[in-house]
């Protein structure tokens, strides 16, 4: 049986990949995708913990996480589309007007 | 441990009645969007009033203290008080928006429904002690707020603010979940009391610290404490004023309700480092918030940074909490109440000053306001004095109690930083007063005269008098009330 | 204590506040002026009631009112009068009607709000003077600050914004430190005495009982707040700006009463609460005060602006008062110096107030404060010249005016404590004569250089009305000081003789038997 | 009785100042004279009662002035031999001068202010004399300083007069500074300020240890400092010559007869302290002699008639201080008496010359006036003879008494006498020179004044006559035992004042020399020497200035030219004070204000403000808007915090 810590470490790695993706990519779509990646990393931890502890709570939590991830993606994409339709660009460096 | 399905006791329905009423009304307003009623903002306004009224009735009379659905819904005097605060301020803000230039933009059926759902999410979050319902409540409110920021009055800034808020917000949600996951992994249960007991008894492990820290960081993000504060200026400036006001007041109430519960237990179990980190965050956000606000030219952005600073002051009280002594929590609540009342006053006035198409008010637009609109200027001055923490206002007593709590624990360093920060803050708060009173009036003129109608003036006057009264006559009463909350 | 005595102080505090609301809301200006003046006069008459019913022999607190305000924290609305603050209350209620009179024909706009602010200021001042609860004192201390901020800010001179912002930030930063120190004291008292209370009487018992840990830092925090207000030497740079930019009314009340808050605070809070720290720091504060005297005098002499000159002269005069309140002979304060300090506070308020009024009068006529614009006014305005000379003589401290009695007692007391310091301070008497006479010389004497000065009209009837009481009172205080000294002597003697274990109880209320009475040698208290 | 003496001048001042109609000069003059006359009459009555009552001192308590801590200062007046006498002098001479002033101030538009100040001055002087404690005396002390300031600067529209008034007040203030320190020390040593109590404490205590004696010396030095300020002795003598800017009656009353003698009066009043400090007495003696010589030399080269008289006053005051220094307080008071008479006479005479010459004060434009102003000339002659010590007149007796007592002073007595005698020579030289330049020799008047020359009105020369008689008669109060003039008892005044002086037995032997028996030969010899000196000085002056041909109006011939230059610039004392005290103070003030106040303290505070603004500017620049920058900031912050936690 693989000890549960390995799953946590894997989840941590996934999470950092997501964060790096968030920071590096200039493109809003990729930003949203990296957020999805982070949420999946969290799912991994929940399932691993639930498997180790033998209770089902973790898995219930995963369902909620997935639905919430979907909502965020939906809202995020909606905003990106309205931004594109109005201003023709979805690059993040366009979003610099609010600063200081 | 398979939990068999047991029919829910009738008391649950009574306790959950406010939530049910609110969600039903929100759905009704959403559906009304289909009919031609949607065009008429006035009847939507009536519907919202009904929704608020019913929920308030539900919270006041019907809710019974108790723990339901394995702590998913915990009704205690504290949670009732917080829900009353949330509902009260949200309602007042809705009324103020109705009488302001934002009526057309805001009172579309889907936005109002969204507004009520966000409120529902906050109430769920503040009255639950189970990770699942906490997470669900938090997400309903957060995602709802992203859209409200983005779409209330669609301009380039609101979209930009909304997107930034969404990206960073979801990043924080991921952090929060990560924290919950690790806490769940270490303590084995999703119910807060069980977890807290496990933490208190168990020995500190890496994963426990990691989980708890991520949770606190995420909540720190919501409160806009320093490392996680940069979303709030953009979101506040981008959003329409009433949404900004809603965010400053209600998000803080929501987050602090959880922090008050868990920090009481968690602080000494995680050892002294915890107090140290929170102290660090509070000092950093106090100094950063005040220093950054010094040179802002737009009022909303300045108020955003000032709200970061005020989160810093509240974080002092958080840092010194310990299970035995409930005084820091009461001090925090009093500070919250005074901050919320002052924000209502200030944002209400800004709301009534704004133009339909013009962009956010700059500081120099307020030049010589006192000559033209003396009572608005007077209200704004009282608000500024309360933010600055000068005595006759509630802000001073809030700060005084927080300093009291900090000195009781002997955190002199923290208090000295707070003193330095509030002296710096004095500068830009009084700069506003200088603009209004000590300069010749500029070209700025209030565009829509209809704010002269009775209701918004009544609300603003009530808020102003409340701020002054809370600073002089009422504190004894309010403290006794807070004392009651903590039993 | 009959029923009037029980509520007289609250009446004196809140009557002006009420009047200020009424004045702000009244539509017609004329009615507002009458209401404001009537209210301030009523407050003055009420304070006269205090004067006649004050029992000069007793050392205890009189006309006390105690109401629970925040019982949970032990904060109560505790107000009272004793020898130290009686005269200051009378000074502030006496000055306000004169202030309102002086702006009777105020040309600028916002006349009503100016009157309202003055009344709020009076309420703040009296509140701070009578408060015997640390939190209450702090609240009135800041309430006093805000109207002053607006008065200087709105009706001030050219760069009033810099002056008024500097004034507020300087004072608030000092007083915030004081608040933190007060809270620390409050908690230490809570642990020692078992019950939490911010009333000064309990804190005195704590201070009398013994050394408070970290007493020096707490004392320094209190001292900083009051030193900025006094202004003690290094912290004085806000005063000239505030005075030159403030309107006449603002300068008079600022110099008349607000500066005394600092010295009064020293006597009421800093000295009795931290006796050991006082013993430790007294020499250095005395040094600062002496430097302040000489520094203020010299800088006043080279000024070209009349108001700035009077401002620097206040720095010098208040240096004397600080000197007087910290003259330690053996393990007691010197009673003569302390009486002199309290007395000097009053007549500095009168003489500097009169000086500012007079400078204001010539400012109204010529719209300039520079000496170069004046000269030879005695020819054209003889009665103005007479008033100015008497006011100058009082501020020099010529015998026969109040200034001399105060200054003489202070110097006499300080001489017993530190002869060298006293000698240096007495040189301030010469420098005082130097700059004040140059002031008179430049304005009154010499040939009339500017043609505009030729047709200046002498004092109008109204101007007489508000300047003569000040002048007459200064001379009266010089010739018959006994009337005033008898009121303050017992309280001052009590503070001076046992400031190490100072305690104060409410008149008529016998302290609880269990309350161990710390050893007090009553011999020091002289029965008149 | 005492109330009338004190209150009538005060009432006069108040009435003149505020009540009486301004324009009416006659009423103002009448009121002024009446007030002082009333006071003089009651003073005479009081003196007569006092003598009848055996000359016992009586203290009248009026009311409690200041009481704080252990200090108790009541308003108490004492009438004893000294104060009763001086009461007569002040009110008497004051009345005469008030009468004269009416005539002198005829051309002035309004004189109410003048007479108000004069009456106020008399009131303050009486307060000074009658006070029974040091503090009340100090009130009078500063009061007279104030009145002299107001009166010197009476014609304030002329800037120089106002400056002169200010200079007088400030120099007096320096003296008062020393006086105050003396008061503090007395209070610290004896715990009381009242003269009678001080006298009782001193006489009752058996002996004094070294510390008290050292304290006493310091106290007496400080009091002497105060006296120097008021009586214009050397270090603080610069203000009296400039005080001539005031009207002549003012110079006569204040700067000759009354105020300047306050210093001597104070020392006499505290003689029991001064006797206990021989070192201070030595200092007093030498300062007195030095000032006398110093002023006499300068007077010899002055051309302004009033300045000559001013320096001569400083010189005569030097004599009085010398008398006090050698322990001959009674001789000092006697000289005060005689000097008051003949100096007032000289000043008023000079005043009438000035009025006659339409306010011309330069002697070089006078000459040969004895024909057109016969009465003034006669009176001035008597005055000059009295002051130079012509045998038979007042000055002769009082000055010789001082010189004799100085000679007897053990130790440096002989040198003191030599200085005094030489000064007497100079005195006779410059006084006769004054007389010669104004009245004798060729008339140097320009045509206009010559035609309008007229004798003074009767109201002005009537008081002069009385003063002339006094300056002759008063001398016979102190006839030395040697010249047994029939029908006149020797040393009347000395015996009258004797009970005031109380030499403590600890210092009995040091001051015994005055009482010891001396052969009359030496006294006669000294008297002869001084008479010779008088005739020598006056003959030189007559020879060089009274001759009909053109007298030498310029600087002295060859050998004395440099000396003349030194003297005419008044030893550059004023310039020295200005350079070493006045302007450095100004520079320090300027430095403190411009640099220390504005640059350092304000600079510091504004700097602090601007650094904070700078930080916020930099921070806001760093916070660029991009989401990624915010995310990086968050992560960095998080990692830093995690570092603390793990």
Report on this structure:
The complex is a heterotetramer of chains A (100), B (487), C (528) and D (646). Chain A has one domain: Helix Hairpins, CATH 1.10.287. Chain A is mainly α and 100 residues long. The longest helix of chain B is centred in the middle third of the chain and has 32 residues. The mean pLDDT of chain B is 86. Chain B has one domain. Chain B is mostly helical and 487 residues long. In chain B, a hairpin with a 4-residue loop joins β1 and β2. Chain C has one domain. Chain C contains 20 helices and four strands. In chain C, a hairpin with a 2-residue loop joins β3 and β4. In chain C, α16 packs parallel to α19. Chains C and D meet through α12, α14, α17, α18 and α20 of C and β1, α5, α6 and α24 of D.
What's the topology here?
The complex is a heterotetramer of chains A (100), B (487), C (528) and D (646).
Chain B: H1 10-32, H2 41-62, E1 66-68, E2 73-75, H3 77-98, H4 103-106, H5 109-126, H6 131-151, H7 156-187, H8 192-201, H9 206-223, H10 231-238, H11 241-269, H12 272-294, H13 299-319, H14 327-353, H15 369-372, H16 374-388, H17 394-408, H18 412-438, H19 454-472, H20 475-485
Antiparallel strand pairs in B: 1-2
Chain C: H1 3-25, H2 29-53, E1 62-70, E2 75-81, H3 83-102, H4 111-130, H5 134-143, H6 145-155, H7 160-193, H8 200-209, H9 215-229, H10 238-245, H11 248-273, H12 275-301, H13 306-325, E3 328-329, E4 332-333, H14 335-366, H15 377-380, H16 382-396, H17 402-417, H18 419-443, H19 461-479, H20 482-497
Antiparallel strand pairs in C: 1-2, 3-4
Chain D: H1 2-19, H2 25-52, E1 58-68, E2 71-79, H3 81-104, H4 112-130, H5 134-152, H6 159-190, H7 195-204, H8 210-230, H9 239-242, H10 248-257, H11 262-269, H12 271-274, H13 278-299, H14 305-325, H15 329-356, H16 374-388, H17 394-408, H18 413-439, H19 447-452, H20 458-473, H21 492-497, H22 520-545, H23 561-568, H24 573-622, H25 627-645
Antiparallel strand pairs in D: 1-2
Quick description:
The complex is a heterotetramer of chains A (100), B (487), C (528) and D (646). Chain A is built from three helices and no strands.
* Strand fraction of chain B: under 5%
Work out the number of β strands of chain A. Answer: 0
C-alpha-based Rg of chain A, rounded? 17 Å
What is the number of helical segments of chain B per DSSP (H or I, 4+ residues)?
20
The termini of chain B sit apart by 34 Å
Cα shape of chain B: globular
Taking pLDDT < 50 over at least 5 consecutive residues as the criterion, the unreliable ranges of chain B are none
Keywords summarizing the entry:
heterotetramer; A: 100 residues; mainly alpha; Helix Hairpins; 78% helix; 0% strand; C: 528 residues; two-stranded antiparallel sheet; 20 helices; globular; disordered C terminus
């Amino acid at each position: 049986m693989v000890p549960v810590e390995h799953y946590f470490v894997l989840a941590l790695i996934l999470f950092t990949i997501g964060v790096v993706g968030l920071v590096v990519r200039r493109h809003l779509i990729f930003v949203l995708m990296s957020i999805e990646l982070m949420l999946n990393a969290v799912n991994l931890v929940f399932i691993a913990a639930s498997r180790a502890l033998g209770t089902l709570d973790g898995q219930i939590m995963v369902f909620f996480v997935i639905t919430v991830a979907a909502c965020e993606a939906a809202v995020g994409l909606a905003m990106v589309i309205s931004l594109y339709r109005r201003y023709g660009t979805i690059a993040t460096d366009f979003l610099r007007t609010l600063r200081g | 441990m398979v939990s068999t399905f047991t029919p829910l006791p009738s008391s649950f329905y009574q306790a959950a009645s406010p939530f049910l009423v609110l969600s039903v009304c929100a759905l009704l307003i959403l559906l009304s969007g289909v009919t031609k009623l949607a065009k008429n903002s006035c009847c939507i306004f009536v519907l919202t009033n009904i929704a608020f009224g019913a929920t308030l009735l539900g919270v006041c009379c019907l809710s019974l203290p108790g723990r339901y659905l394995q702590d998913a819904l915990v009704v205690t005097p504290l949670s009732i008080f917080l829900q009353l605060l949330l509902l009260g301020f949200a309602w007042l803000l809705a009324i103020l928006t109705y009488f302001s230039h934002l009526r057309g933009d805001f009172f579309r059926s889907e936005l109002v429904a969204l507004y009520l759902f966000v409120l529902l999410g906050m109430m769920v979050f503040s009255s639950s002690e189970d990770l699942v319902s906490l997470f669900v409540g938090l997400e309903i409110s957060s995602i709802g707020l992203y859209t409200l920021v983005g779409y209330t009055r669609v301009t380039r800034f609101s979209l930009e603010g909304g997107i930034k808020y969404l990206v960073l917000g979801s990043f924080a949600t991921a952090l929060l979940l990560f924290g919950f996951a690790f806490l769940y992994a270490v303590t084995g249960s999703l119910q807060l009391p069980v977890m807290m007991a496990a933490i208190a008894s168990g020995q500190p492990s890496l994963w426990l610290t990691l989980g708890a820290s991520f949770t606190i960081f995420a909540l720190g993000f919501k409160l806009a404490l320093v490392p996680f504060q940069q979303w709030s200026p953009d979101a506040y400036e981008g959003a329409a004023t009433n949404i900004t006001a809603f965010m400053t007041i209600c998000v803080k109430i929501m987050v602090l309700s959880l922090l008050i519960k868990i920090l009481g237990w968690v602080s000494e179990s995680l050892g002294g480092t915890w107090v140290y980190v929170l102290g660090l965050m509070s000092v950093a956000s106090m100094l950063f918030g005040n220093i950054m606000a010094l040179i802002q030219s737009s009022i909303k952005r300045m108020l955003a940074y000032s709200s970061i600073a005020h989160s810093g002051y509240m974080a002092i009280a958080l840092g010194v909490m310990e299970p035995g002594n409930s005084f820091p929590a009461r001090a925090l609540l009093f500070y919250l109440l005074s901050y919320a009342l002052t924000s209502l006053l200030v944002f209400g006035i800004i709301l009534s000053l704004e133009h339909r198409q013009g962009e956010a008010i700059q500081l120099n637009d307020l030049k010589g306001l006192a000559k033209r609109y003396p009572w608005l200027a007077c209200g704004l001055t009282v608000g500024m004095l309360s933010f600055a923490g000068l005595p006759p206002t509630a802000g001073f007593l809030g700060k005084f109690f927080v300093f009291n709590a900090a000195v009781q624990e002997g955190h002199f360093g923290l208090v000295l930083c707070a003193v330095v920060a509030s002296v710096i803050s004095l500068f830009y708060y009084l700069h506003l007063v200088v603009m209004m009173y000590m300069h010749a009036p500029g070209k700025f003129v209030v565009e829509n005269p209809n704010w002269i109608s009775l209701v918004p003036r009544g609300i603003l006057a009530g808020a102003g008098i409340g701020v002054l009264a809370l600073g002089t006559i009422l504190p004894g009463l309010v403290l006794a009330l807070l004392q009651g909350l903590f039993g | 204590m009959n029923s009037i005595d029980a509520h007289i102080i609250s009446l004196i505090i809140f009557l002006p506040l009420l009047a200020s609301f009424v004045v702000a809301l009244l539509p017609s200006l004329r009615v507002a002026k009458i209401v404001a003046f009537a209210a301030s006069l009523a407050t003055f008459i009420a304070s006269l009631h205090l004067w006649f019913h004050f029992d000069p022999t007793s050392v205890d607190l009189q006309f006390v009112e105690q109401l629970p305000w925040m019982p949970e924290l032990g904060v109560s609305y505790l107000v009272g009068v004793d020898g130290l603050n009686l005269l200051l209350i009378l000074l502030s209620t006496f000055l306000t009607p004169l202030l309102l009179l002086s702006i009777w024909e105020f040309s600028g706009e916002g006349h009503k709000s100016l009157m309202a602010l003055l009344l709020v200021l009076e309420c703040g001042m009296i509140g701070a003077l009578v408060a015997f609860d640390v939190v209450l004192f702090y609240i009135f201390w800041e309430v006093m600050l805000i109207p002053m901020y607006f008065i200087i800010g709105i009706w001030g001179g050219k760069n009033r914004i810099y002056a008024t912002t500097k004034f507020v930030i300087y004072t608030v930063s000092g007083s915030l430190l004081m608040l933190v120190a007060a809270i620390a004291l409050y908690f230490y008292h809570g642990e020692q005495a078992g019950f939490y209370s911010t009333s000064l009487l309990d804190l005195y018992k704590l201070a009398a009982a013994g050394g408070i840990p970290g007493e020096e830092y707490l004392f320094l925090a209190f001292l900083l707040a009051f030193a900025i207000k006094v202004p003690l030497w290094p912290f004085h740079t806000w005063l000239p700006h505030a005075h030159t930019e403030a309107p006449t009314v603002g300068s008079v009340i600022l110099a008349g009463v607000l500066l005394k808050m600092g010295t009064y605070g020293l006597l009421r809070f800093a000295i009795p609460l931290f006796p050991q720290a006082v013993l430790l720091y007294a020499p250095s504060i005395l040094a600062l005060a002496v430097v302040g005297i000489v520094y203020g005098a010299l800088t006043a002499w080279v000024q070209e602006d009349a108001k700035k000159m009077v401002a620097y002269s206040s720095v010098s005069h208040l240096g004397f008062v600080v000197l007087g309140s910290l003259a330690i002979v053996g393990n007691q304060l010197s009673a003569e110096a302390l009486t002199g300090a309290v007395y000097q506070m009053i007549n500095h308020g009168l003489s500097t107030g009169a000086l500012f009024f007079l400078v204001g009068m010539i400012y109204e006529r010529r719209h300039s404060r520079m000496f170069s614009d004046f000269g030879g006014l005695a020819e054209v305005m003889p009665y103005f010249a007479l008033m100015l000379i008497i006011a100058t003589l009082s501020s020099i401290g010529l015998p026969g005016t109040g200034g001399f009695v105060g200054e003489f007692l202070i110097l006499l007391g300080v001489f017993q404590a530190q002869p060298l310091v006293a000698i240096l301070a007495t040189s301030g008497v010469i420098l005082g004569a130097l700059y004040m006479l140059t002031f008179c010389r430049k304005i009154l004497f010499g040939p009339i250089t500017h043609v505009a000065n030729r047709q200046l009209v002498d004092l109008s009837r109204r101007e007489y009305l508000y300047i003569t009481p000040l002048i007459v009172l200064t001379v009266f205080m010089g010739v018959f000081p006994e009337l005033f000294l008898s009121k303050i002597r017992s309280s001052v003697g009590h503070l001076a003789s046992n400031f190490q274990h100072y305690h104060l109880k409410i008149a008529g209320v016998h302290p609880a038997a269990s309350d161990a009475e710390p050893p007090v040698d009553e011999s020091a208290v002289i029965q008149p | 009785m005492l109330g009338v003496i004190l209150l009538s001048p005060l009432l006069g001042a108040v009435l003149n100042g505020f009540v009486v109609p301004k324009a009416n000069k006659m009423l103002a003059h009448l009121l002024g004279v009446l007030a002082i006359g009333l006071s003089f009459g009651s003073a005479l009555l009081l003196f007569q009662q006092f003598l009848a009552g055996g000359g016992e001192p009586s203290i009248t308590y009026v009311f409690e002035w200041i009481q704080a801590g252990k200090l108790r200062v009541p308003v108490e007046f004492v009438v004893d031999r000294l104060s009763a006498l001086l009461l007569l002098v002040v009110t008497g001479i004051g009345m005469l001068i008030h009468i004269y002033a009416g005539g002198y101030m005829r051309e002035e538009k309004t004189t109410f202010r003048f007479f108000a100040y004069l009456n106020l001055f008399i009131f303050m002087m009486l307060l000074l004399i009658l006070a029974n404690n040091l503090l009340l005396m100090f009130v009078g002390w500063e009061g007279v300083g104030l009145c002299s300031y107001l009166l010197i600067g009476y014609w304030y529209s002329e800037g120089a007069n106002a400056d002169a008034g200010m200079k007088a007040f400030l120099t007096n203030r320096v003296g008062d500074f020393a006086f105050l320190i003396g008061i503090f020390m007395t209070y610290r040593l004896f715990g009381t300020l009242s003269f009678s109590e001080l006298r009782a404490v001193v006489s009752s205590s058996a002996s004094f240890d070294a510390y008290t004696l050292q304290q006493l010396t310091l106290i007496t030095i400080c009091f002497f400092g105060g006296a120097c300020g008021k009586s214009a002795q050397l270090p603080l003598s610069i203000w009296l010559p400039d005080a001539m800017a005031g009207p002549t009656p003012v110079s006569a009353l204040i700067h000759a007869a009354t105020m300047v003698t306050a210093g001597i009066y104070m020392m006499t009043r505290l003689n029991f302290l001064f006797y206990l400090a021989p070192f201070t007495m030595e200092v007093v003696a030498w300062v007195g002699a030095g000032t006398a010589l110093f002023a006499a030399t300068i007077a010899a080269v002055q051309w302004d008639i009033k300045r000559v008289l001013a320096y001569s006053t400083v010189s005569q005051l030097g004599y009085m201080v010398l008398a006090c220094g050698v322990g001959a307080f009674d001789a000092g008071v006697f000289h005060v008496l005689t000097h008051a008479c003949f100096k007032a006479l000289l000043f008023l005479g000079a005043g009438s010359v000035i009025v006659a010459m339409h306010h011309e004060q330069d002697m070089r434009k006078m000459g040969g006036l004895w024909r057109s102003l016969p009465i003034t000339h006669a009176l001035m002659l008597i005055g000059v003879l009295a002051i130079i010590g012509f045998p038979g007149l007042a000055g002769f007796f009082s000055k010789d008494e001082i010189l004799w007592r100085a000679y007897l002073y053990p130790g440096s007595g002989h040198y003191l006498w030599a200085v005094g005698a030489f000064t007497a020579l100079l005195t006779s030289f410059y006084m006769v020179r004054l007389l010669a330049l104004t009245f004798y020799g060729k008339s140097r008047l320009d045509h206009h004044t010559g035609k309008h020359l007229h004798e003074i009105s009767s109201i002005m020369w009537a008081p002069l006559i009385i003063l002339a008689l006094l300056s002759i008669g008063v001398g016979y109060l102190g006839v030395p035992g040697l010249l047994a003039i029939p029908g006149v008892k020797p040393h009347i005044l000395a015996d009258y004042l004797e009970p005031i002086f109380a030499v403590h037995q600890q210092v009995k032997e040091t001051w015994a020399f005055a009482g010891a028996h001396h052969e009359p030969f030496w006294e006669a010899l000294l008297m002869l020497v001084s008479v010779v000196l008088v005739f020598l000085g006056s003959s030189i002056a007559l020879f060089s200035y009274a001759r009909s041909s053109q007298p030498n109006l310029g600087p002295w011939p060859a050998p004395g030219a440099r000396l003349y230059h030194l003297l005419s610039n008044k030893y550059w004392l004023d310039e020295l004070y200005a350079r070493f005290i006045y302007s450095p103070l100004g520079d320090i003030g300027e430095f403190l204000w411009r640099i220390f106040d504005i640059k350092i303290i304000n600079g510091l505070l504004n700097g602090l403000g601007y650094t904070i603004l700078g930080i916020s500017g930099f921070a806001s620049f760093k916070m660029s808007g991009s989401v990624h920058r915010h995310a990086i900031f968050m992560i960095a912050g998080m990692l830093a915090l995690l570092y603390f936690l793990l």
